[in-house]
Amino acid sequence: MKKIQLEILGLSSSQSQTGSFALVLGERDGNRRLPIIIGMFEAQSIAIQIEKINPNRPLTHDLFKTFAEQMSVNITEILISDLKEGVFYSKIMCTDGEKEFELDARPSDAIAIGLRFGVPIYTVESVLSEAGIILSDLEEEEDENEEMAVKSTSSASSSTKEPLNQTSVDDLNKMLNEALEKEDYERAAKIRDELNKRN
């Protein structure tokens, strides 16, 4: 099983779901992006670690780190291992110096813990090919997109008002490109999920 290393590219608040955030992971040696919708607490925990802020009292993920260190357990890597029915699964890979073992975790918790241990984040090709979004060079496509925008203004504007499950595949692909250009990764993730249901 070939692992693909990811890095955190951004964390933005959800525009449509109050209390949700879009965590955007990027393929280290590629142009694919993996947006994951996470909760407010996990987003705060990740942001605090990224910004190197020391909270007055330890958060749950800080407590996990302290507990693991006291028990002589070290985290070696985080693996986003699977995607089933739109739900991401991940594993925290651990060692106590003698044996290796893994813990099942939500990706948001696993990444928050992994950041505290300074370990790499990986995924597998099956997850990235199913849920990843490819960012192409926008400059090369600018002229093409402008032509498409002129031709499909009326159809695209009407389709954005419709629920995604009633929108045609062509319009979904156009909406996906628009969301990527605007860096609205949360909307892009929802459109991607709808497209995956159709395949």
What is the H-and-E element order? EEEHHEEEHEHEHHHH
Amino-to-carboxy terminus distance: 24 Å
- What proportion strand? 25-35%
Specify the overall morphology.
globular
Q: Give the tally of structural domains.
A: 2
Helix content: 40-55%
Mean pLDDT: 82
Largest sheet: 8 strands, mixed
User: CATH homologous superfamily of the largest domain, by name?
Assistant: Bifunctional nuclease domain
**Total strands:** 8
The strand line-up of the biggest sheet is 6-5-4-7-1-2-3-8
Helices, by number, come to 8
Features:
alpha+beta; Bifunctional nuclease domain; eight-stranded mixed beta sheet; globular
Describe this structure in words.
This protein has helices at 40-50, 60-70, 107-117, 125-131, 138-151, 153-161, 169-181, 185-198, and strands at 3-13, 20-27, 32-39, 74-84, 87-95, 100-105, 121-124, 133-134. By secondary structure, it is an alpha+beta fold. It has two domains: 3-131, Bifunctional nuclease domain, CATH 3.10.690.10; 137-198, no CATH class. An eight-stranded mixed sheet has the order 6-5-4-7-1-2-3-8. It is globular.
